[in-house]
Design a protein that fits this description.
The complex is a heterodimer of chains A (455) and B (620).
Chain A: H1 2-17, H2 19-38, H3 45-81, H4 86-89, H5 95-131, H6 136-145, E1 149-153, H7 161-174, H8 183-199, E2 200-201, E3 206-211, E4 222-228, E5 230-231, E6 239-247, H9 250-253, E7 263-264, E8 269-272, E9 276-282, E10 291-297, E11 305-306, E12 313-320, H10 322-348, H11 353-368, H12 370-382, H13 386-397, H14 407-413, H15 419-447
Antiparallel strand pairs in A: 1-12, 2-11, 3-10, 4-9, 4-12, 5-11, 6-7, 6-8, 6-10
Helix pairs in contact in A: 1-5, 2-3, 2-5, 3-5, 3-10, 3-11, 3-14, 5-10, 7-8, 10-11, 10-14, 10-15, 12-13
Chain B: H1 3-36, H2 51-59, H3 63-81, H4 87-97, H5 102-119, H6 125-146, H7 151-165, H8 173-188, H9 193-201, H10 206-209, H11 213-225, H12 234-244, H13 250-258, H14 263-279, H15 285-295, H16 316-331, H17 339-358, E1 360-369, E2 387-396, H18 402-419, H19 424-443, H20 447-460, H21 471-483, H22 488-508, H23 511-532, H24 545-558, H25 564-577, H26 579-607
Antiparallel strand pairs in B: 1-2
Helix pairs in contact in B: 3-4, 4-5, 5-6, 5-7, 6-7, 7-16, 7-17, 9-14, 9-15, 11-13, 12-14, 16-17, 17-18, 18-19, 19-20, 21-23, 22-23, 22-24, 22-25, 25-26
The chains are: A alpha+beta (455), B mainly alpha (620).
């Protein structure tokens, strides 16, 4: 352990001496306060805060990721190149201890820098409403929509498999299977049709959902119904008139009894299609974690309203504080830095600095675009490619997916980032992906020839 | 190196050089294609470009394209997620990176004014208005300034004013009109020809205005009275704030009062207003005056019908006309009639048309219920008010604009005839326009003017048989045509509606129009009775006309859509001019007066700041 700590201390000292580290630190120290002044967002205080937090955290994450890659790849590879490693490997220090010591030093440095810059961002975020002279209405809006952590509950995806199979069998019996389509493709199309039927509301009709486990802290607060309409035929004004009813609908089933808890029915409103909207409702509509929700497609609309599975409907409620969410978001960034440090140290053990940093940067770039890459390659799966399914897909799964969990997005939307998801990400990125990479690096480093034997 | 290596190197160099020559030979046609597809920026150098544009163009080099793509994708992704907080910032950055592409500015402005604004709920009109303003400001304050020769930008800006604010497609279009009117009103009052001339002649720079020693004394007095007045040009902007909210600037207002009726105050006043029009609104008072003189409404009190009144600059369509006219003036090519020119021309023409149809605006205070659900639970109290005063806007046709509208139509017809082989569609449109105007003038009681229009119809369309009869016969035939498929209920509704309209105009003091409407109602009544009612068949006859008039008054007085003070106006006039009818309506009058009193008390409380009134705050 003392060896580990000694190597870590040396690594930190080495990093601090690097000019690139100083440049990155100075850059952040200048840009973050400057950003807090120049960003305007959409002109509102909330927009300004969202823009600042979004760009501030993203910039901090990007620069610290780059710094981590540079330091982790340079530290060990320079020791090897300039033969300083000889003074270490001749000591009773195991090779894995050298690597872990390097890793520990970089992690400590990342922790200190990230904590410092995150504190600056947090401080400026808390100060900005006052500096922008936000009015009382704006402060209320900020409390409800930004300085909060709202958990989300989505409706259960209906299970239409039996209906799909029934329809498929019927088509097969009647000999109506489309030409040129495989059974899998036919089933997929039937599945989409059945799902659409479950999510579509013809004019004059209504649809209802039930939500469980809506854990509201304070009934005096608000919950938010976040919805997005899609339509079969575009209305002339690109808007739909709808009526929402929110509350415990179980009370209505008991005939003759008066309502014990409120059921809210805001006046019908017109909302634009294919755009996300939010409807605020007092939280006392939720009873013991249960919330009933109904939507009526008013007859005047003359078009079928569809709620897309992915983002058609969700209920948001306050589940935590902004401060807790901010800390967890920073933890997500820290997890990325740890992974990149593991990757850099591992690659530097057997690659030269230029090659190691290039590989790291490529993996970092791919990790930042992982969603795009996966979506692009998913088309191969659809065409039944065995090579993709057996070889490429498992390899892609080893890639880190930085953009899947963008911490800034949670803070911008006021969305709750749970500890479980953070720990899960840590488990995957550090516990599995990082560990695999590190072990490979340690094994290679263990058997690497540091110097030629000359006789 | 071996001789073989030298040979390979030599061949590679020759190959590379030949490729360069071939590539260079293609350059001419590539540049030409880029010009045709409008993919190159203007020939202006970066010498006078703002630092941000110069930096972005030079420092980023080839990476500028990639960065632009990233920004566009981010903007699109955020839009799909319903996140608009970054839209304005992204639009600004994209336009910094692509400053010379008019389409980029156009798209971003349209995106904000149309797509993003309607993403805000209709229950938050102030949020929608903010995005519409963002779109306007992007075009007005940045795009046109950086691309003054791009006519499409003027057209787009005009379109936002004409369609988004002046049209009815948006649920909260009335809110937009109101905000525009309230914001510009302090800068253009008293809205007379003289005041616009003074605005146009007002000093353009601070140095010019302080060359007058008397004005300098006034400025110094203002600055000394309140340190918040600031220095230099800032005093002009703050002076307007003093006039708008004297309670908040008591000491400065005292100075203004002291200098009331003096020449220096008037000079400074007009300078401040003109300065604000130029700086904030980007409106040139000289062009405003020119447009007033060219397109202003005719003054019907002028026996020669040649004197023009100022345009109603509180109306969105006047602004759309301004930007269209400016675009044609600055960026138009008179010898050519390109697509962009045609569209910009149309903005001017359609603006005049709309001003004819809805050019008169009346802004009233009305009482509206407060949406209790919009107030947080912890802020609700048992004795909180359930209604609040809001400003409402009513639009009426402005017959005085017909002359300008008509001349614009003539100009369009002339252009069409020169450019197109078959002008039938446009002349049909002109005929319909003149026919509708004829009926409007007749209904409005302007018989002489109506006759002038009818004579024009006869002159332009001599072959049409319907114009061979006299004017009154023609109008009656028009009414008869409309009534052919009308049931008794429709007829009652039409007559009732026209009578209510008449009493509203009467309450507003538009006696001519009131009289015209009532006469029109009478004529419809007569035509209907003549066509459908016989001695034998009285099944579908209408009530007595006097009864219908009384019912219409009742309907108007009982309709809460009309503000109480408007209805009281009507009762006041009836009391003076028709006392016997007034007796019957006295009870109603008492009820309305009580309501008016309560409204005044609430207004007083609002002005003292006791009740928040965020709907009435004009946005500069």
């Amino acid at each position: 352990m003392p060896a580990l700590w000694a190597i870590a201390k040396n690594t930190i000292a080495q990093a601090v001496r690097m000019k690139v580290a100083a440049i990155f630190i100075v850059l952040l120290l200048i840009l973050l306060p400057l950003m807090s002044v120049i960003v305007t967002g959409d002109g509102s205080v909330k927009g300004k805060l969202q823009t600042f937090v979004g760009y501030g955290l993203s910039l901090t994450s990007l620069l610290l990721c780059l710094l981590t890659i540079i330091i982790s790849t340079y530290s060990l590879s320079s020791d090897i190149k300039y033969k300083q490693i000889w003074t270490v490997v001749t000591k009773p220090v195991r090779r894995w201890q050298v690597m872990l010591g390097k890793l520990l030093g970089i992690i400590i440095l990342d922790f200190v820098l990230l904590a410092g810059f995150a504190s600056i961002i947090y401080g400026l975020t808390m100060l900005m409403p006052r500096l922008s002279h936000a009015g009382p209405d704006e402060m209320v809006q900020l409390e409800n929509e930004f300085f909060t952590a709202r958990a989300s509950v989505k409706p259960l995806i209906p299970d239409v498999r039996n209906e799909v199979e029934e329809a498929f069998s019927k088509m097969q019996d009647q000999g109506n299977l489309p030409q040129g389509m495989t059974p899998l493709q036919v089933r997929q199309q039937l599945y989409q049709q059945k799902m659409l039927e479950k999510q579509a509301v013809p004019p004059g009709q209504a649809i209802a959902w039930q939500f469980q486990d809506v854990a509201v802290f304070d009934p005096n607060q608000y919950i938010f119904i976040r919805f997005k309409y899609d339509v079969s035929v575009n209305p002339p004004n690109m808007s739909v008139y709808g009526r929402w009813i929110i509350g415990d609908d179980r009370q209505l089933a008991a005939s003759g009894s008066s309502l014990k808890t409120p059921i809210y029915a805001p006046p019908p409103q017109s909302d634009s299609i294919r755009t996300v909207h939010e409807l605020a409702v007092p939280a006392d509509a939720v009873v013991d974690g249960y919330l009933g929700l109904a939507f009526q497609n008013l007859p005047a609309n003359n078009t079928v309203v569809i709620f897309p599975t992915e983002d058609g409907l969700e209920v948001l409620y306050k589940a935590g504080s902004f401060q807790g969410n901010f800390i967890r978001a920073v933890a997500v960034i820290f997890i990325r830095l740890v992974f990149l440090a593991m990757l850099g140290v591992s690659l530097a053990a057997w690659l030269s600095f230029p090659v190691a940093i290039l590989v790291c940067l490529v993996i970092f770039a791919m990790g930042s675009m992982s969603t795009f890459i996966f979506e692009s390659f998913d088309a191969l799966e659809g065409s039944g490619s065995v090579a993709y399914t057996l070889i490429l897909k498992p390899a892609l799964n080893l890639l880190p997916q930085f953009d899947k969990f963008a911490p800034a997005d949670f803070l911008i939307k006021g969305q709750y980032l749970s500890l479980a998801s953070v720990l899960g990400q840590a488990g995957v990125m550090i516990g599995i992906q990082g560990a695999i990479v590190l072990i490979v690096g340690i094994v290679i480093f263990r058997f690497k020839e540091m110097a030629k034997v000359t006789v | 190196m071996k001789s073989r290596d030298y040979l390979i190197i030599f061949l590679c160099i020759v190959f590379a050089a030949s490729m360069l020559v071939v590539a260079n030979s293609q350059l001419g046609s590539i540049v030409s294609h880029r010009k045709d597809m409008k993919l190159i920026s203007s020939a202006e150098t970066l010498e006078n470009a703002p630092p941000s544009i110069a930096f972005a163009s030079v420092a980023l080099g080839a990476f500028r394209g990639i960065l632009v793509d990233v920004l566009w994708m981010r903007a699109d992704n955020l839009k799909m997620q319903g996140q608009f907080f970054d839209a304005k910032q992204l639009a600004e950055w994209i336009t910094i990176l692509q400053p010379r592409f008019a389409e980029v500015w156009d798209f971003q402005a349209w995106n904000m004014a149309y797509n993003i604004s309607v993403a805000m709920p209709a229950t938050q009109p102030q949020e929608r208005w903010r995005w519409v303003k963002n779109g306007i400001e992007l075009l007005r304050d940045q795009a046109i300034v950086k691309n003054p020769k791009s006519i499409s930008l003027y057209r787009s800006l005009g379109w936002i004013y004409f369609h988004k604010i002046g049209g009815v497609s948006d649920d909260v279009h009335k809110y937009y009109r109101l905000q525009l009117a309230l914001a510009i009103k302090p800068l253009i009052d008293p809205q007379t020809n003289e005041s616009y001339e003074k605005l146009a002649k007002a000093p353009k720079t601070w140095n010019q205005v302080i060359s007058d020693p008397a004005v300098v004394k006034l400025v110094n007095a203002l600055a000394q009275a309140d340190p918040n007045m600031g220095k230099g040009e800032a005093i002009a902007a703050n002076y307007l704030a003093v006039r708008a909210a004297p309670n908040q600037w008591p000491k400065a207002f005292e100075v203004v009062n002291r200098y009331r009726e003096t020449t220096e105050l008037e000079t400074f006043d007009y300078f401040a207003k003109a300065h604000q029009l130029r700086a904030a609104w980007k409106l040139d008072p000289e062009l405003m005056l020119e447009l007033n003189r060219t397109y202003g409404p005719i003054d019907f009190t002028d026996p020669n019908l040649t004197r023009r009144l100022p345009l109603n600059w509180e109306h969105a369509c006047v602004h759309s006309m301004y930007w269209g006219a400016l675009g044609l003036k600055v960026a138009g090519k008179p010898g050519e009639y390109r697509g962009d020119e045609v569209n910009t021309d149309r903005i001017v023409f359609h603006s005049l048309q709309e001003l004819f149809r809805t050019g008169k605006m009346v802004i009233y205070d009305t009482e509206m219920p407060i949406d209790i659900n919009a107030i947080p639970l912890d802020q609700r109290t048992p004795d909180m008010p359930t209604t609040q005063l809001v400003k409402s806007i009513y639009l009426f046709p402005d017959l005085r604009m017909f002359d300008s509208y008509d001349r614009a139509m003539d100009a369009v017809v002339d252009k069409y005839i020169k450019l197109k082989d078959d002008p039938v569609s446009i002349t049909n449109g002109q005929r319909n326009m003149l026919t509708n105007a004829l009926v409007s003038f007749y209904q409005g009681g302007h018989r002489d003017y109506a006759l002038k229009i009818y004579n024009k119809l006869r002159r332009l369309f001599p072959q049409r048989p319907e114009f061979r009869s006299d004017m009154v016969t023609f109008i009656r035939s028009q009414i008869k045509e409309e009534l052919q498929s009308v049931t008794i209920h429709d007829a009652v509704e039409q007559i009732q509606g026209m009578l209510v309209d008449s009493y509203m105009n009467y309450a507003l003091g538009n006696d001519d129009e009131a009289s015209g409407r009532e006469q029109m109602a009478r004529e419809i009544y007569d035509v209907y009775q003549k066509e459908w009612v016989t001695e034998k068949v009285k099944r579908v006859d209408l009530p007595e006309f006097s009864m219908m008039r009384y019912l219409a008054i009742e309907a108007f007085l009982n309709d809460d859509m009309y503000p109480p003070n408007l209805r009281l106006n009507l009762i006041g006039r009836i009391k003076l001019e028709k006392p016997e009818m007034f007796k019957q309506l006295e009870i109603k009058a008492n009820q309305l007066m009580q309501k008016e009193k309560e409204q005044q008390e609430r207004e007083k409380a609002q002005n003292q700041g006791n009740i928040p009134d965020n709907q009435n705050t004009p946005v500069p």
